[in-house]
Amino acid sequence: MAAPPGEYFSVGSQVSCRTCKEQRLQGELASKARTEKEEKLSQAYAISAGVSLEGQQLFQTIHKTIKDCKWQEKNIVVMEEVVITPPYQVENCKGKEGSALSHVRKIVEKHFRDAESQKVLQRSQAQQPQKEAALSS
User: Fold this and answer.
1) What CA–CA distance (Å, rounded) separates 79 from 59?
2) What are the residues whose beta carbons fall under 8 Å from the beta carbon of 94, sequence distance 6 or more?
3) How far apart are CA 104 and CA 48, in angstroms?
4) Domain ranges, ordered by start, for the chain
5) In 45-60, which positions are buried (b, 16+ CB within 10 angstroms) versus exposed (e)?
6) pTM for this structure?
7) How far apart are CA 54 and CA 88, in angstroms?
8) What are the pLDDT digits (tens) for 95-125?
9) Using the 8-state DSSP alphabet, how is residue 96 labeled?
10) How many whole angstroms separate alpha carbon 77 and alpha carbon 93?
C-alpha cells in the first residue's frame, strides 16, 4: 500500500488495512451467528423431544464449559464419552471412569448446588416484604 503524497512511514510501522479489518469482522459475525443458530436449534430440539426444564438448563450449563455437548433423544452426550440420562442427576452420569466423567459430574453437582442456592435466595427475598409488612403493622 503506497503512502499518500506527503506522508512517510518509518521502518517497522504498521499500516492497517480497512478492508482486511472489515473482512475479519464479517467472519467473526458470521461465526457468532452460526453458533447462536446451533444453540437455538439444540434448544428447539430439546423442547420438541419433551426434555424437562431442568434437563435443558443443565445442558446449557454444561455447554458453557464444554462445547462438545449434544442431545441424543432425551440424553445429554458430552465429549462422546459421558451420557446423562433423565432425571439428569449426578448418579445419571454414565461413561468410562476417568477425567471426562469426573469433570462432568463436578459440573452437574455445581449446577444443582447453584440452583438450590438460587431457590433459597428467592424464597428469602419473597419473605422479606412479608416480614417488613408484619413489623410495620
Assistant:
1) 13
2) 82, 83, 84, 85, 101
3) 25
4) 36-125
5) ebeeeebeeebbebbe
6) 0.68
7) 8
8) 999 999 999 999 999 999 999 999 898 888 8
9) S
10) 10
pLDDT (tens digit per residue) in 9-51: 556 555 556 777 888 888 888 888 887 888 888 778 788 889 9
**What's the grid cell of residue 104?**
462432568
Alpha-carbon span 68 to 54, nearest angstrom: 19
C-alpha cell at 2: 503506497
Q: In this structure, which long-range contacts are made by residues 54-61, counting pairs with CB atoms below 8 Å and at least 24 apart in sequence? A: 54/87, 54/88, 55/86, 55/87, 55/88, 57/111, 57/115, 58/84, 58/88, 58/108, 58/111, 61/107, 61/111
CA-CA distance, 13 to 43, in Å (whole number)?
48
Higher pLDDT among residues 59 and 48, named by residue: 59
CA distance 92 to 85: 5
pLDDT digits (tens, 9 = 90+) for 60-72: 999 999 999 999 9
Using a 10 angstrom Cβ sphere, with 0-12 exposed, 13-18 middle and 19 or more buried, the burial of residue 11 is exposed
